[in-house]
Every structure is written in structure tokens, then in C-alpha cells.
Amino acid sequence: MANPYLNAGPLNRVRCSVVIAAFPTLNITSQYMGKSFAHIEFEGDFNQQIETATGVVNSPEPYVMATITVGLLRSQALAANWLAQAQDTSVLGDVTIHSDTSAFPAITLNDTGIRMISPGAYDGTDPVVRVTLRGSFNINSSLWSFT
User: DSSP strand E in 9-127: where?
Assistant: First the structure.
């Protein structure tokens, strides 16, 4: 058998970004992020499995909630702009996060809002303001085919 080598492909440490369609002045590129950049996490099950006497009935969800956490640099004005945005309105609409590789698709959350802003310690050693966003992610699009 031949060597099953597969090129794993590269990661780009500065490719990550978070784009806010309705508020482009809040867009976050890598220059404004701390070392942890951004993180997305889906909440809940994509599919419920309802138990029956002899098995399960699958019940796909039409969406799941998702959370994006970004470490913004407090030393940049963008972090202050995010705090001002929360003071005005925390409703953002569509937000898209781009990953650290072109091989993985961008993920768009709908009806996104600012869930939390944590300015962090003012001790001169941690420059990060944690911004947490939460919105819905559409899944199981075949549910809408009605066939």
C-alpha cells in the first residue's frame, strides 16, 4: 500500500475576522484582536432524537443558537466603539465570522445581539476586552422542502 500522506493545509493566523453587516464600523480584523482572536460555539443539539419503545424518531432543528467571543484590544478605539454601540443598541442583525483557513466556510449568525462585554482587569497586563455575541444559525435547510 502506498503512503496515505495527505497535505493538511495551512492555517493563517491573521485571517480571522468578524463582520457586522449593519454596522461596518464595528468590523473586527486581526489587528484589533488579542492573541486568542475569536471563537464560535454552537449551543444545543442539531437534531433531537425522541425515544420510542423500540428506537428513536429524529426531529431536526431548523436553527441552533451560537456564541461568538472576541478578544478586542482595549488599547484600540474599536473596543470603546463596541461599548458605545451597546449603550445605543445591542441588536446587531447579521454577523459573519471568518475562520483561520479558506478551507472552512464563513459562518453567519442571524438576529445577533451583544450578549456581554467584559472590559477585563485594568492592571496593565491584559489588554483584552471580551465581547460576546449571540445569534441564531440556520441548519437543516431540507426541512423547508415539504416533500
Answer: 17-20, 33-43, 47-51, 56-60, 63-73, 91-98, 107-118
